[in-house]
Amino acid sequence: METIGNHIQAADWKSEKHVPVIEIDTPIVKNQPVSISLKVGAEIAHPNTTEHHIRWIQLYFKPEEEKFLIHLGTYNFDAHGESVKGTNEGSARCEPFVKTTVTLTSPGTLLALSYCNIHGLWENSMEVEIA
Question: Would you give the end-to-end CA distance of the chain in angstroms?
Fold first, then answer.
């Protein structure tokens, strides 16, 4: 059976420029806002051109004792140097980096999914504990 899951790729983000990186700088405290950074191209820069770019990153949370994922956010990157002057001549480009704030009440797993317009879907995950 053909499923989306069959087309999601994963790798070590230190050696693969398409993998979304999840970073949390402080301990997660129950019912307290925590800042989460998501980026693509942390170690190896990803091109950010009209022809080749990251279109979006999505963030999900899978609570330890629950069955389903919780969609925390979708972060779109819409400017890639397009212009009436020509390809990559535009005056603005979005970088595939976002910082968001969430409040968690239980341990679980954060999951990030990114989409490259040429190389498809990429995923990464991070186990999180609650202090």
Answer: 41
Give 3-state DSSP helix, strand, coil % of the chain, rounded to 5: 5, 45, 50
Known catalytic residue at 46? yes
Catalytic residue among 62, 82, 94, 119: 119
- Residue 72's pLDDT is 98
Q: Given this model, what pLDDT does residue 112 score? A: 98
Calpha distance 131→115 (Å, rounded)? 32
Catalytic site includes residue 116: yes
Residue 71 known to be catalytic: no
User: Which entry of 39, 53, 80, 116 is annotated as an active-site residue?
Assistant: 116
Q: Mean pLDDT per segment of 10 residues, for the chain of length 131 residues? A: 88 86 96 98 90 97 97 97 93 96 98 97 96 87
Q: Which residues sit opposite 9 in a β-bridge?
A: 122
Question: Could you state, in order of their start, the residue ranges of all structural domains in the chain?
Answer: 4-128
User: Among residues 2, 18, 64, 67, which one is catalytic?
Assistant: 18
Single-letter amino acid, residue 82: E
For the domain 4-128, what is the CATH code? 2.60.40.730
